[in-house]
Amino acid sequence: MVAEHAVQAGTSPASYNATVTVSEKAIGQIGREYIGLSFESSTINNGDRYDARGNLVALLKTLGTSVLRFGGHSADLAAFTGLKPSALSGLHRLTKASGWSAVYTENLGVFNAGLVSADARRVRAALGSKLLGFACGNEPDQYVAGGMRPFGYTIGDYLTQVGECYQAIRAGAPAAPLAGPDTTNTPAWFGPYAAREAGAIRVFGQHYYPLGCASGGDSPAAMVGTLLSPGLAAAEAARFASYTSQVKRSGAPLIMTETNSACGGGVKGLSNSYASALWVIDYLLTGAEHGVSGMNFTGGLNTLCTGYTVLCATGNYIYRPQPIYYGMLFTHLLGVGKLLRVKIAASSGGNLTAFAVRPAAGGGLRLMVENLSQQQASVAIGVGSYRGTAKVLRMTGPSLLATSGVRLQGASVTRKGGIKLGNPGTITCTAGGCPVTLAPYSAAIVTIG
């Protein structure tokens, strides 16, 4: 892991000092379609309202322009035989109005070539250029554990079956873009798939939940330290590096097509807390540093709002952004461009993360700095010969486990789905650097020059 996360053990003083130094060496990039969402395929038919009504389009646009991935366990059930015409019409309207594209998963678990071909024909015709790719199946490396395939089912069996599924898709939608394999952490499956499908796949998809799966006895208070720990961040970086190394020669991008803090709906009281907003910033930018091209965060468009969902239904076609949405949005505000190498030195008691972006469209250097400590941080950002002012935007929350009240430069997302930030703060950069003070458990975007 590159040096963008520094922690020092010891006693816990009221504050700590840190320095951040930025190199012009590019170590990654973050693109325009990086921050996306993931939903269960069955929910398109079963009541979740994917349509250009209410505030959904505005909430998507506020996050930028990205990808809606449809898949999950329900895509592989016998009950899922494709999209109803009315549901597909709503999805068409949503992608057209929002500018977002879609990855759509066909049923491989209970495979029927005729149904897949017919469904692919309809989906391709409805979505057109907004279809990023067709996938086949969800987490096929877990089919045996899930009772969908007999013991002894191998990667060879899967490659044969996914090939038949792709043929069925192409029979209904010739030349349609393909995606996959949407596996979990099974290198023995992902590697052979990537090698065989190189050149045929538009995007490779993988799944990852750093905390594993939630259980009923989980304690948010006991787990929050792990969620924001350097140890978990290092494990995330290693996982991303492992994934990207397996597709490097293929030329196709890697997307975390299904991800969030914990699977199984998330940890109630943690996955829907302010801590998740802080976590997701570091998680997103660590992935970009290690070659990940996009992330789709799992959730729904319903009233199940105590877990990991990004959006919570509060009325007819009206959704409230959860705390994790604010972290995703704050990362979006950092902009797109090259990620530069960062070095941090922190005094005792500190837990600081920092990332630097050289914007693709030009303009000043931008840094994301997070104080993941209960102490105040006094940070000096080295700026070389620059002398002048820098602008600062801040993300704050009432407490780590607060489930509401997150603010970006004092503002919250409106009922209509937009946000109007307060005026940025300013700091003066001198020979000693650009001084930034961060309250405990807060984040800042600093624009220099």
From TrEMBL:
Annotated InterPro entries: GH, GH79_Enzymes, Glyco_hydro_b
Protein name per its UniProtKB record: Beta-glucuronidase C-terminal domain-containing protein
Lineage: Bacteria, Bacillati, Actinomycetota, Actinomycetes, Streptosporangiales
